[in-house]
Amino acid sequence: MGDIGGFRHADLAAAPPDGMLQNPLLDNTDSIDFAELKPQVLARVGRPNGKQKSGGYSLDGGVTWQPFVTDPTGSRGSGSVAVSADGSTILWTPRGSVPSRTTDLGTTWTAAQGAPTNLHVVTDRVNPADCYGLDARSGVLYRSTDGGATFQGAASGLPTGDSTVQPTPGTEGDLWVGAGKALYHSTDGGRNFSKLDGIQNVDTIGLGKAPPGRTYPAIFTIAEVGGTPGAFRSDDAGRPGSASPTPSTASARWTTSSATRAFTAGCTLVRTAEGCYTAIQPVVKA
Questions:
Q1: Of 107, 172, 227, 270, most Cβ neighbours within 10 A?
Q2: Residue ranges covered by each domain of the chain
Q3: 112-159 pLDDT, tens per residue?
Q4: Which of 93, 79, 100 is nearest to 26 (CA)?
């Protein structure tokens, strides 16, 4: 979020009465994550305001925050952050650095072994020991099975360049990867990937609440499906549904999509320099 430190929205229809997140106050919040199995635990990092810290944590669902006592060795701040499924470990990859892990809420940090610099780590949403990261320079998917202490290459040959990795809530080792403008799926912790046909120019991926009568999450993506660009939702693990209308503008590109776990039809879309659009009733698959 450029020039914004972040907000906690108890009601999406109302502005947060307490304003931006504090302690620390960030000029930009570059990354935020929560513990899937203990969602009261969150962490965020970014570019600090003045002499404030570059990151912090919350143990009450984002109501109050505490800054990390220290930063990883050599940290220049910013970067990306991830929280293990049980909230016991926080992984921070500061800009230009390798990932570092803390198990004491940022009092001490230990650099990960085997991981490249700038690896954007994400955590498995079921197994607290597993985490993943796709190296945009080499196309190698790295995996850790010890909570981010060490990383090894799990798969190679994925596209280089901009990418996004989304672990599936409720299913261990299930990953969605948008890379090289294509969409890939792994069901074995990133060892093998299958490329989905008919989907191009993937900008973002979001996973939300499963549709009624199903257990697998609904999948949202900003992409081109069958030659048609738009916002799409799939209720059947990756076979696309109908394109939903999205706000149209030529001045920016979609950067983020996130889906709510509260109800099936909700997602939030973000465009560069333009803010957020919330879709409560996107077009669903017939």
A1: 270
A2: 26-279
A3: 999 999 999 999 999 999 999 999 999 999 999 999 999 999 999 999
A4: 79
